[in-house]
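Researcher: Go.
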Amino acid sequence: MEIKVLGPGCPKCHETEKLVREVVAETGALATVVKVSDFQQIAMMGVFSTPAVAVDGVVKCVGKVPSKAEIAAWITQA
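Model: Structure:
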């Protein structure tokens, strides 16, 4: 599973990345977490508000910091 955290590096983007990494560690999921800060790559995924999270190429969250429960649900559903 690949989880992309999309964002240029604002505090909310850093918080989102931190939460995603924490949930991956807590659940023991076999996931690779990738931080994408390039605006062109972000726009190519159809995302125009950050932070955003994509799991295996599917955008799950846009424009907000997701909760740990939301992240855990995305990981277990994938």
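Model: Residues 12 and 18 are 10 Å apart (CA to CA).
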